[in-house]
Amino acid sequence: MPDQRVLMGNEAVAWGLATGGCQVVTSYPGTPSSEILPAVLAIRSELGAEVAVEWSLNEMVAFQVALGASYAGKRSATIMKQVGLNVAADALMSSAYTGCQGGFVIVSADDPGPYSSQTEQDTRAFAQFAKVPVLDPATPQEACAYAKLAVALSERFEIPVILRPSLRVCHARQTVSLDTAIDACPPAAFVKNPNRWAATPKYRLELHRELNRKLEAIRAHIESERALTWADPGEGARGIIAGGVLRGMIQDWAAGRGLSLPLLHLGCAFPFPAGPVAAFIGQHERVLVLEETGPVIEQQIADRGRISGRLDGWVPAEGEIDGQRLDEILGRFLDRPAVSITVPENPAPAPARRPTLCPACPHRNSFHAIRKALPKGIYTGDIGCYTLGVNMKAVDTVLVMGASIGLAMGIHQAYRQDGREQPVVATIGDSTFLHSGLPQLANAVYNDSRIIVVILDNEVTAMTGMQPAVSTGARIDGTPGRPVRLEEAVRGCGVRFLEIRDPYAMDACIEALRAAHAFTRQPDGGVAVLIFRHPCVLNDPRGGVPVKRPVTVDPAACTGCKVCMNVFQCPAIIATPDGKAGIDRRICAQCGNCIAVCPSGAIREQP
Amino acid sequence: MNTPVLKEERVDHQILIAGLGGQGVLFLSRLLYAAAQIQDRPVFTYEIHGMSQRGGSVYSSLKIGAFRSPVLFPGSVDTLFVLERSELYTHLRQLRPGGQVVLNHPDPDAPEVRRLAAAGYRVFVHDADAVALRLGQPRIANLVLLGRFMDAHPFVLTHEDIRQALRQIVKPALLAVNEAAFLGQAQGENKRGPDGPR
Description:
Chain A is an alpha/beta fold. A seven-stranded mixed sheet of chain A has the order 3-2-4-5-7-6-12. A five-stranded mixed sheet of chain A has the order 9-11-10-13-14, sandwiched between helices. In chain A, strand 10, helix 11 and strand 11 (263-266) form a beta-alpha-beta unit. Chain B is built from seven helices and six strands. Chain B has helices at 25-38, 88-91, 111-118, 128-134, 141-152, 159-169, 172-183; strands at 13-20, 43-47, 57-64, 77-82, 95-104, 122-126. Chain B has a six-stranded mixed sheet, with helices on both faces. In chain B, helix 3 (111-118) links the parallel strand 5 and strand 6. The longest helix of chain B is centred in the first third of the chain and has 14 residues, at 25-38. Chains A and B meet through strand 8, helix 11 and helix 14 of A and helix 1, strand 2, helix 2 and helix 3 of B. Strand 8 of chain A pairs antiparallel with strand 2 (43-47) of chain B.
């Protein structure tokens, strides 16, 4: 019974996985993939589906749990963002060789732009490298269909299949027709076969041969699968080959201009449907390839004589292709100059709105304390809301999850080579610490790195949308889990200096940072760990602000030094026309944290 | 009652909502597409998540009709809602010539407002922030702006669609406040302190 509803792309993916019969679904949150797992849970409740869901500790763990279920015969899926696939890469590469038993789908959400990621890497290129098929939907409707198709394709050919929705599929919402019937999932039955599941290098060669045979069979399948590969003949001698979201954009662009363009849609860029591509190119004088973000389709076209795309500079080699860019590119390719639009000039350009820590955010206090206590420190940061400490000059490096501690050790050692003891402070969130900070911390203990590690514990995975923290034990489905206590994990690594403070008590944090620094300088000292713990103000049921302290600024006392705006950086403090501090009551959360920050005591609690 | 809309009258409509994180851009987008759904019309929307939500610029697109992508092209938007006036110019190129601007702004005679009108756009200006702040409800400025705009101008969605959509997406405890903001019934009320309903 088809059902029409508005679904977010991520929800549509969840529907495809759930109705495709996946029974074990794992994930680590990361924009733009974070809403998929909660949607699977919601579908489980709606349909009474037998699906086990878990937030795993990181993507590598999530990958292995889901793959294990597939080895045992169940249909399964694992969900992550594109840089999460880097974390799971080792398992991905090897799983292409072993293959799988039950249908096994890896959802890896791409972020062309990038908007919320360290790179704009293309999961399709990763799939090609790992030698597994990758499906690239254009719309939420297609994402639902492709997710289901991926489950079936994986099970039929016993190979992991990647679904690559990109940002504008994940976070789009579309009126989708839905089939709510659930495909049956096979029963658990692990068939022992060491030559496959525990293959030694000798058998790995045979597995590689078999993988190549599978890929050839899948290529033939994809070339004839109408949902994945189709051509719209259109009109004209110039044709377009498109994958993913760009296909839908091209259709809307053409419809808006009353055009019918020759279009070849590739829903699967690897294995490459070479036959239909060659046929399409043969029918046209010139062909433009539009895809995000890398030239994955383009590089697989053997005869490039008629082709334009990213490789010949026709399309920019980096960045998202937004409406304006596509308008310009298609206009140029089709000799239809864009309609010129003149708009009134902005007389006073708006200040660039960079993302910023929320009003009352405890991280702001933590960073302020770190800069106060150790002004000469080098501050290595990590991935989460608290990356925004960079605005406060309290984050000097951001690389990958866990690298705050790893880079801190290297930076500290570099100075040690010259006989100097440079204070280095690593800041890392609770979830990121358990994701990939633990081996780093154990390394700091073992190799006696004299760094300070500050775990910013807001008791939730905030940036990606308030997923429960492992350290609280809460699970996605509301069942109580066993918490992994940060302090126990830290002490278990052998750390001998550990203090826990509430960043709302800023002076106590500064004092603890100084004590931590002293410990790192003692002959028998070592790595020092501080846990700054205060609930995220957006997530705390009590509002996060324990005592409301509405403030006012005394204009007579305010010297206009702007410490509150430029150093403390609370967005609720704004400059008045005479250059003094004012409170933006639309967003002030009444935490009163700014009172202690003002050097001239001009910010005061409202009587 | 829901005014029946004839098929022939159902022209496609493209909307862009711009503002800052925390101003309810996404809420307004959800409200409008829920209302479009009540009319049984297909929608395609896009919204920003993640880091941009932390006080940065936020926008949402909403295309009502038979579309295959949520992406807006320059000169394609019919109605541009601007909750934070400094975000206006970032999105103006998306508006079609003669398109509608719905602007949260304290001064209907401000030079930038006059420039918009001189450039041929239809402009509706309302100081929704002041109204919302007076009610002690800074976050309902979005509904105040939408409501006063719809009182004054024809729009692709009707008051009844919006009210029905509000009932679908707003928690029961907050419904009265939201409805009052949309219908303009809250404006004449006495000043409420910060402890009023949220």
